[in-house]
Amino acid sequence: MKPHGLNDETRRQLDRFLQHQQTQAYQMTYALTGNRDDALELVQDAMLQLVRKYAHKPETDWPALFHRILQNRIRDFHRKQGFRKLLGLFNGQIHRSEQEHSDAGATAIEQASDPRQAQPDQQLQQSHFRENLLQALQTLPLRQQQIFLLRGWQQFSTTETAAALGISSGSVKTHYSRALEKLRTQLGEHHENVE
Description:
Layout: H1 8-33, H2 36-54, H3 62-81, H4 108-111, H5 120-138, H6 142-152, H7 158-165, H8 169-187
Helix pairs in contact: 1-2, 1-3, 2-3, 3-7, 5-8, 6-8, 7-8
């Protein structure tokens, strides 16, 4: 992807940005589509769209622009395909971003991370929690799933999530609060892990 009219430094920054985004964007999209091929296609399409239309924008604008494009692609996918159940969200290893958000506390996604560091009984508990969380996520409306995954997995702030989805911060707070309430109710004894 080499957009015309960009200097070499901007191209390098864009390449670094896309490489940094690709794994988590793919995992999140897979969680929302339930299909590996569809997820890969949606992420690649969003990346191409970012390069074509917004490569000239400041680097600080790219995360919100990229996630807005991607979330729009995901919504379009659901309109065309109908809602598919989430499949295999936690199959394999989920790696957290190397960059930590200062305002991010422990989340349900974090509670379900890296089973290699746990003892066998803890691994079993984490496995059950992941399965329960996956089932509970399936019951949320798409907008709540998107917001929960952006806030809980991507560790976006309220403002970043609002920019990525093209909605108000108040709407993000409302949907996130409703998602957490539903997840806590459905996860029962594990509710303390959902923050």
